[in-house]
Design goal:
Number of strands: 8
Number of helices: 3
Distance between the termini: 85 Å
Strand order of the largest sheet: 3-4-5-6-7-8
Strand content: 15-25%
Shape: elongated
C-alpha cells in the first residue's frame, strides 16, 4: 500500500527496502524489560527490609511478654495479700477467678484463659507447688492447694526468637537465650540467665 510522504511523516511510517511505506507501531506503555526491572527492584528492597521487620516483630513480642510477666507478678502479690491469706495462686486460671463481692479478677481474662496459653508469640505458664497447710482462699481454692511460692515463664513460640523470660516469687524478671521454665526455682536465682533491665 502506498502513502504520500507527508502522510507517512505524520503517522510515523517508514519505507521498506523496496521503497514502499509501511506503518510502524508507536511505543506506548511499558515493555516487558521495564516490568522485570521494577519487579527486581521491589524484590531487592523486600530482601533488605524483611529481616528488619522480623526483628521489630520479635522486639514487640518481647516487650509484650515482659509486660505480661510483670502483670502476673503483681497479680500474684495482690492475690496473696487480699485473698490467699499470704499464699499464692497455683496457676493462671485461679488468678482469673474474681473474689466474692467483686466483678474484677486478679488478672485480665487474656492471661487467665488457660494454665498454659500462647499470646504475642510467647507461651505463658504459671505454677505454684501446693502447700498442705495452706488455708482456703476467698475465690474458691481449696485447703492445701495454694502455694507458698511460684514461678512463671514466657517462652518464645517461634524458633528464631532467642529471648526467653521467667520470674518467681522474688519478683525479678530473668532473661536467657533458652527456656528458663524447667530450671527456674520458685524462690531464688535460676542457674542460668541474667536479670532483665
Amino acid at each position: 500500500m502506498l502513502f504520500s510522504s507527508a502522510a507517512c511523516h505524520v503517522l510515523g511510517d517508514a519505507a521498506d527496502p523496496e521503497g514502499n511505506f509501511v506503518k510502524i507501531r508507536q511505543a506506548r506503555g511499558f515493555a516487558l524489560i521495564d516490568l522485570l526491572f521494577v519487579c527486581g527492584i521491589i524484590g531487592l528492597l523486600c530482601s533488605i527490609a524483611l529481616p528488619r521487620l522480623l526483628l521489630a516483630k520479635q522486639a514487640a513480642g518481647a516487650a509484650s511478654a515482659v509486660g505480661s510477666i510483670r502483670t502476673i507478678t503483681s497479680s500474684q502479690l495482690t492475690f496473696a495479700l487480699t485473698c490467699g491469706n499470704g499464699f499464692y495462686a497455683p496457676n493462671l486460671t485461679t488468678l482469673g477467678v474474681a473474689p466474692p463481692g467483686s466483678n474484677e479478677a486478679f488478672i485480665a481474662p487474656a492471661l487467665s484463659q488457660a494454665d498454659t496459653l500462647t499470646r504475642s508469640g510467647y507461651i505463658f505458664r504459671l505454677e505454684g507447688t501446693a502447700f498442705p497447710g495452706a488455708p482456703e482462699t476467698c475465690n474458691g481454692v481449696a485447703v492445701g492447694e495454694a502455694a507458698q511460692s511460684f514461678k512463671a515463664a514466657a517462652d518464645a513460640a517461634e524458633p528464631g526468637n532467642p529471648r526467653f523470660f521467667a520470674t518467681n516469687s522474688n519478683g525479678l524478671i530473668w532473661e536467657h537465650s533458652s527456656s528458663l521454665w524447667a530450671t527456674m526455682p520458685e524462690v531464688g536465682e535460676p542457674p542460668a540467665g541474667h536479670i532483665f533491665r
